[in-house]
Design a protein that fits this description.
Strand content: 15-25%
Distance between the termini: 52 Å
Shape: rod-shaped
Strand order of the largest sheet: 7-8-6-11-10-9
Number of helices: 10
Helix content: 40-55%
């Protein structure tokens, strides 16, 4: 039968077991902390989405309110009914200049049935063609106000279109207000520190925005099949967003990316027009270095605590086994060996022993006393 030295086997086994248990607990804690960090970042993504959607809704609501205000003016109704372009321009051009300079209103368009451009305040010399915008076609089909992101002749905007009714209550035309999305994104950045970019598919831009500035199609703005229409930080977003990611954003996409050594959380949201057709992607990015730094610090502390626990517990195991068990056991075993050789001398004080070793020491003392009594010289009878 193979002999195993308890003095070596027991401490080694217990130390290895301690390392395994502490490591398993460390891995479980790492997974738990990782899950908490992931939950924090998920919350930040949700906050980003809520901020962006609220900013866009507010801009569309303001555009709708401005369009309704214009459509309700009796003077505007009379000029639209008469299709008086010159009178309509004189009546509204000062108002348009204020809205453009202060509130980012980029386009104001008056249409008459069935969607023919009567007057563009931002381009008065461009009129007379039938609108191709789904939003305008829907307004003339339903006679109900609508708002959405649309690509108009002069480019994409956040549009709101409202029917203009005559004195008999029947629809005689419409007024459409378009807010520059770049202004909205810049306002969101100033308020919340998000980096934002709007990417519109190039094909519908060429097809619908026939009056857009040709500089928009600069090759440096082209990312796959998209054109970067506006970016709050063009250089940064170029590092964070590429053509493959834009192409996959038919549903909301979230990911992290590095730029200049800084981790960013990036959220891509598809941008549909009034018919639900996706015409672009809105990108939002936020610095995630704080949560990632917290995760890194957590990993360092977990490793340090695990090492400290392993060293401390291993030391305690060795101290207890060697000092409280193996050393007294060796001493008692030596006494039994001496007794076997016939040495019946009384041993010294054992000091404090555990109950089991104390019982063994008493057993040795009883055997020693018996052996001593047997070896003592007997007197004559």
């Amino acid at each position: 039968m193979a002999r195993v030295r308890f003095a070596r086997f027991a401490p080694t086994t217990l130390v290895i077991s301690t390392i395994a248990v502490v490591s398993a607990m460390g891995l479980a804690l790492h997974a738990l902390v990782g899950g908490l960090i992931s939950d924090v970042e998920d919350g930040r993504y949700q906050q980003m989405d809520a901020i962006v959607q609220a900013g866009l809704r507010e801009a569309e609501d303001h555009a709708l309110a401005r369009a309704e205000l214009i459509a309700d003016l009796p003077r505007i109704q009379a000029l639209v009914a008469a299709q008086d372009r010159a009178g309509l321009l004189a009546e509204t051009q000062a108002m348009f200049a204020v809205q453009r300079d202060k509130y980012g209103v980029e386009q104001v368009i008056f249409h008459v049935p069935p969607g023919i451009a009567l007057l563009r305040l931002h381009a008065p010399d461009k009129f007379g063609e039938q609108s191709k915008q789904p939003l305008i076609l829907d307004v003339y089909a339903s006679h109900v106000a609508r708002h959405s992101v649309e690509i108009a002749r002069s480019g994409p905007d956040l549009f709101a279109a409202v029917p203009v009714n005559g004195v008999d209550g029947k629809m005689i035309g419409s007024v459409e207000v378009g807010v520059n999305p770049g202004t909205v994104l810049d306002d969101i950045k100033r308020g919340y520190g998000l980096e934002l970019g709007l990417y519109i598919e190039e094909e519908p831009l060429h097809r619908l925005a026939t009056g857009i500035d040709p500089a928009v199609f600069d090759p440096q703005r082209r990312i796959g099949k998209h054109i970067q229409l506006h970016a709050t930080d063009r250089a940064l977003l170029t590092q964070l967003v590429d053509s493959s990611q834009l192409a996959s954003a038919t549903v909301p996409v979230r990911y992290t990316a590095m730029a200049a050594g800084v981790p960013y959380g990036v959220m891509l949201t598809p941008v549909p027009d009034s018919t639900g057709q996706i015409i672009g992607v809105l990108a939002a990015a936020q610095d995630f270095s704080s949560s990632r730094a917290a995760a890194s610090r957590s990993k360092v502390w977990q490793v340090l605590v695990a090492l400290f626990a392993i060293v401390l517990l291993s030391g305690l195991i060795i101290i207890v086994l060697r000092g409280g068990l193996l050393a007294p056991l060796r001493a008692i075993s030596g006494r039994f060996d001496a007794l076997a050789r016939g040495d019946t001398a009384r041993p010294g004080d054992d000091g404090p022993l555990c109950d089991e070793l104390a019982a063994l020491a008493r057993h040795h003392e009883r055997l020693r006393a018996e052996a001593e009594a047997r070896s003592a010289p007997r007197g004559d009878a």
